[in-house]
Design a protein that fits this description.
It is elongated and about 110 Å long. The chain has 116 residues and is mainly α. The chain has a domain at 59-106: 30s Ribosomal Protein S18. It starts with 53 loop residues before the first helix and ends in a 10-residue tail after the last helix. The chain has four helices and no strands. It has helices at residues 54-57, 68-72, 84-87, 91-106.
Length: 116
């Protein structure tokens, strides 16, 4: 017993914090099943008609702000002007249409917004 000296317990060695545990990769899956033709379920194909400018087709040069029936086709129910990507109107006619709608709103031929 004389050989045994009183030793202080050694501090436990801490693992370095810079080495993270390896993360398991998600399980490998097979290839995706083939999709139906046309991109829509049910096998129907969606046909998008090319939009053409109504004013160019009908050769309307001047868009009159007093023509409420014509302007109303390009105003949504909420009162917003419908964008040209939805209506198919060309850029120059969309500018004239916007100006005519704003003039019609200012003299109360068209509403600025819906009732509610």
């Amino acid at each position: 017993m004389a050989d045994e000296e009183t030793k202080t317990p050694a501090a436990p060695e801490a693992a370095p914090a810079s080495t993270p545990e390896p993360v398991a990769a998600p399980p490998a899956r097979g290839p995706r099943p083939p999709r139906p033709a046309g991109g829509r379920e049910g096998g129907r194909k969606y046909f998008r008609r090319k939009k053409v400018c109504k004013f160019c087709v009908e050769k309307i040069d001047v868009i009159n702000y007093k023509d409420v029936r014509l302007l109303g086709q390009f105003v949504a129910e909420s009162g917003k002007i419908v964008p040209r990507r939805l209506t198919g109107v060309c850029t120059p006619h969309q500018r004239r249409l916007t100006r005519a709608i704003k003039e019609a709103r200012n003299i109360a031929l068209l509403p600025f917004s819906s009732r509610y």
